Amino acid sequence: MGRKHRMLAVAVRPGQKNSVHLRDDVRKPSVKDVPEGRGVLVKTLKVGVDATDREINDALYGNAPEGDDYLIIGHECFGIVEQVGSAVKHVKPGDYVTSTVRRNGDSKYDRIGRSDITSQEEYYERGINLRHGFMTEYFVDDAEFMVKIPKKLKHLHVLAEPMSCAAKAVEQAYLAQQRLQVWEPNLAFVTGSGQIGLLATLALRNRRCEVYTLARSPKPNLKARIAEGLGATYISTEKTSLKKLAKKVGKPDLIIDATGCSKNSFECMKVLAHNGALVWTSITGGKNKFKIDGSKINLEWVLGNKLLIGSVNANWRHFERGIADLALGEQTYPGVLKQILTHPVEGLENYQQMMDLLVAGSALKVYVNVADDPNDKRK
Ligand code: BGC
Ligand code: ZN
């Protein structure tokens, strides 16, 4: 295979701690890799990383595709379409796109295009489990997984994927709450002010909720400024606990937990209003154990008809909804969302810097600038 047909990629050896490395032996994909003219070849411009990538590099989960001993990481992609197969209609060369993460298994949910709610225990996710990710110079996929990003939102690039997960989490609550016949949530808490917490804050503000976003750090800090820029109230839990806040402003109708801390996920159960919904979104890779007030929580939840929802991943539809949320957010709170994109890393070669930033844990958002946008050069 000549150099021309190979490309760079950032990968890990699953099961081996701290194995992140750069490869130069990965075959450059072709639109023809996807049958029936449905392939889309994308030049990668940016790839975002999050705690999932850190935990994969910590060997807490993640598997290589069958036949390979490495897994290319990266599941938050942003790129420009270079070539499409003959059957592809909804994207064309020059369009900005992102791609969904999960790929179909065999359950009935996969068969109706809802791999995000597959009932199979084994799931396929690009860059995470059993499928290579996007941290490469190019990637190819079936047009069915490609989502167009409007040119006016290209400055928010890698936020499309985390936004889709936040949009799904909020949507799940609204769908499930139809059980109540009437549900008009006024007060919502979001715990955690990482990217999912802030983007869930946006989704709830877009739905006209009064939102309190809670996180550890005292004000002033960037996350607080972003949350408040989105019209929410930021609360430092070092100053005001979840319980104290609920006493002061009332019990919330909806809580989205995005702390990555399982103890907090359970703490949220103690402050939810009657008929409320609590959505858990954190992937907690560790084995943290703690005591809970089982009987009390059980009693309150039964007497209060409360609902707990786990929400993971996102489907094509949630990407569309998420992109609409970003667009509305830009209109209502101009310039706020791009402040989430704090830590760019220049080039795939700097993968170690990328991982170090993730491990240090103080960066709100780390992403890699993989290539310059060819549209910018044409100007
Ligand atoms: C990703 C999701 C994925 C989940 C579980 C998250 O970091 O953004 O798309 O489903 O991890 O692997
Ligand atoms: Zn993620």
Provide a descriptive summary of the structure in words.
By secondary structure, the chain is of the alpha/beta class. The protein folds into two domains: 3-149 and 342-377, Medium-chain alcohol dehydrogenases, catalytic domain (Quinone Oxidoreductase, Chain A, domain 1, Alpha-Beta Complex), CATH 3.90.180.10; 164-310, NAD(P)-binding Rossmann-like Domain (Rossmann fold, 3-Layer(aba) Sandwich), CATH 3.40.50.720. It has helices spanning 51-57, 108-111, 160-176, 195-206, 222-229, 242-249, 262-267, 294-303, 316-332, 351-360, 374-378; strands at residues 6-12, 21-27, 39-49, 71-72, 76-84, 96-99, 102-103, 124-126, 130-131, 138-142, 146-148, 187-191, 210-215, 233-236, 254-257, 277-280, 307-310, 343-346, 366-369. α7 (262-267) links the parallel β15 (254-257) and β16. The two termini are 35 Å apart. The mean pLDDT is 97. Bound molecules: beta-D-glucopyranose and zinc ion (ZN). Beta-D-glucopyranose binds at residues 50, 52, 75, 101, 125, 128, 161, 165, 283, 312-313.
